[in-house]
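Sharing a chain and its predicted structure for anyone who wants a worked example. Both blocks are below, sequence first, tokens second.
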Amino acid sequence: MTLVRAGLAPTDPVAIPGKNPSLAVSFFRKTSELALRLVWTEGPILGAGDVRVTLLAPWIVNNSDGRARVEHCADVMEGFTLAAEFRHKSWFSEKARESTLAMERERGFVNVVVDEPNTTANSIPAVWEVTNQGLALVRLHGRNHETWNIKGAASASSRFNYDHTDDELGELAGPIGEIAKRVERTHAVFNNNYEDQGQRNARAHMHILGQTAMQP
């Protein structure tokens, strides 16, 4: 039986363990230039110190330059497992979907499945595909269309102000359970971090998953 871990998303990038400080500084400088952001480097929620989650900024689109930047990120972080969250719809358009998944499989990327508003260019659909047999990662950002591109918010949590209903969590449990059967570990991470929404939703989600959920 494959267990599913539900948890909350950390927010601050930290140093890269196992790498010397100069390389860490160099990498963060490079990721700034490439509009990439390394979010997880310790993996306390992922339960594995060798997994890194990389968010690709919305202006990294699916073209030759964008693919070169993604490949460079993989080269720089060779030896780590990278989970890539694409944030421009061009990566998973009907035309590009299979080639993006093929690139992820070739480089060993974990395909990050997202649940988010899917109405603008800086959002992607949920793509329930496995590209690394070791891990599946689902990030739930909430479904607040009105705040997805909010300007001038006091904090990032305002953007993800969304409280999932039990029905929505029940609907998500199905595909999460199915994808969990195909990998060694599955992590569902709640990024709707306004007040205690994420904590409550994660707890409710674990209850819905029942025995397949990993207890904290």
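Comments welcome. The domain at 4-212 is CATH 3.20.20.410 (TIM Barrel).
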